[in-house]
Structure formats: C-alpha cells, structure tokens
Write a structure and sequence with these properties.
Number of helices: 4
Helix content: over 70%
Oligomer: single chain
Length: about 100
C-alpha cells in the first residue's frame, strides 16, 4: 500500500500553472504600461535591433496567450510546453548577452 501524499500531482501542476500565469500576466502588463520605454530599451538590446519593431508587440502578446493557455485545463499542457519554450528562449538570450553583450 502506497503512503498517501499530502499534495497530489494535480495540485502541484495547478500551483505551477497559477504561478506561471501570474508571472506572464505581470510581465506583459508591465511591458504594456511602459510601452514607449519597453520599445526603446528593446531597440537598444544587442542582437535585437531591427526586430524591435515587431518584437515589442509580439512579446507581451505571446506572454498573454501563454497565460490564457495555462488558465484552461483543456489547454494547460500546451501552455506548459509554451512556457518551457519561452523560458528556454529567454535563458539562451541572457546567456548570449552575458557572453557577447560587452563586445557589441
């Protein structure tokens, strides 16, 4: 007989999804509230430059779409995979910035 777990696997997934919803919603709203500053800073970022024209719209939109996917149980798995992909992209960009940011 297996010992009963205090927190079920579903509860853990729900908590992780809720935290990611908070993270992505907060960051998207923050970017939208400081629209001009976000656009300017994105244009100054090494490796982005010319893509800033569409990225400053795409990034908050993607964050809000992922938050919506995480909200509904039927699309939660897709949202978790999308969260993983976005976090990996962000991590790779930060690594790129640390390695090459000073030389650009």
């Amino acid at each position: 007989m297996k010992p009963q777990s205090f927190i079920t696997r579903k509860a853990i997934v729900d908590i992780i999804a809720a935290l990611l919803i908070l993270l992505f919603t907060y960051t998207a709203v923050s970017k939208l509230m400081t629209w001009d500053l976000f656009r300017f800073l994105l244009g100054q970022a090494p490796g982005i430059g010319k893509q800033a024209g569409w990225l400053f719209i795409a990034i908050p939109a993607v964050e809000l779409i992922i938050a919506a996917l995480l909200f509904f149980p039927s699309t939660r798995l897709k949202g978790l995979y999308a969260s993983l992909a976005l976090m990996l992209l962000f991590t790779m960009y930060v690594i790129y910035m640390v390695q090459h940011g000073g030389n650009l």
